[in-house]
Amino acid sequence: MSSNQGWRRVISKSLACALTATALLAVFTASAVAATEEAPPSPPPSNPQPYFYHNLDYGSESQFNPISNFINYGLDTLQVKKDFDGSRFGTQFRKTVDNLSDPVYSIDRNGDIGSFINRQIIPYDLNNLDESAAMIPNYALHLLGGGMVYRKNVEWLQSRGYKYPRTLAVLQGMTAELLQEVVEKKSTTAEDPVADFFIFRPAGMLLFENDDFAEFAAQVLRLAEWPYQPMYNPGQGRFVNVGENFLVRPTFLAIENHSLFAYFGMTVLLGASHKVSFTDAISWGVGGAVTNVEHYTLKTRPCGGIFYDRNGSLLSSLILNGTEDLKVRFNLYPGAVTKNQWFPGIYLGVGDKGDVVVGLTLRALPLGVAFGSN
Prior knowledge:
Elements: H1 3-35, H2 59-62, H3 66-74, H4 89-101, H5 103-108, H6 113-120, H7 135-159, H8 165-184, H9 192-209, H10 211-219, E1 224-225, E2 231-233, E3 238-240, E4 246-248, E5 254-255, E6 258-264, E7 267-275, E8 280-294, E9 297-310, E10 313-320, E11 326-332, E12 345-351, E13 356-361, E14 368-372
Parallel strand pairs: 2-14
Antiparallel strand pairs: 1-4, 2-3, 4-6, 5-6, 6-7, 7-8, 8-9, 9-10, 10-11, 11-12, 12-13, 13-14
């Protein structure tokens, strides 16, 4: 090995260590905070005002817990069946770990550090702006969405008196992030997990640790998450109706009972939200659903959706021409039609070729069961 190569390996490994330390900074911070906490008495004392988890017994909120969130976030990109899957999970896991263990080499495989920054972080090269589309999900999904569900998991754990809620939420979030990178590895470049795992997800967690920002996101942006109801189809041997979606309905873009509605995930919609009562709202939007991912380019098809929620908890949704090769995706959440805790959530999916999948889920379980083929 030449001296230049030797120095290159030293620098590469040093940067890997630095990035790993950055990714785990939230863990150490949370652990330091948790170490000063006493085990909560019974009943536990009231926690500071929750911004994202409100312990509602109806709709999507009634199904939320760290396990269901792990499934929806970690397996979210299974919606794009052509490009993302776990059929070669072991191979994809090893490739992802290789990418993360030597980030300099992973970045150099697609250019250099300047190109990486232009594609993934800041679009400074006006001649290659087409590649900078890769940073949109970095900020929208990993930073903003990932940070928000981290805070929501912390609040869920606090509401149930768990010791060290931040430590547990960080470990859950980083593990879900790693799972998502493995699922995507079939079609992503070597540098992609470096940006998501080392930079944007940890940064999102630290951002939402700030109470002022969390309050702004929850009360001004009115940021929320409306996941699908994840299910396993034993006949096909795969997960269906899995997905994490986020939305904002900014107060500064509202007029009386009407506001802008922006919905984003693997499906991006823009429309309006209309309050129909003190607690209930109907929202709608049109936009695009991701169908293919090629290099740094996302291919989409026209899509539309309508949603009904109560106090921010989604009761039902209908998405037309969406992801997962579905012409119709209908979700009815527990509590939408009755307060009976055993009334299931219902899923109906109609594929592009007319094939049908139906499924049921219970609020007490993080995963439902579906039947049919698409």
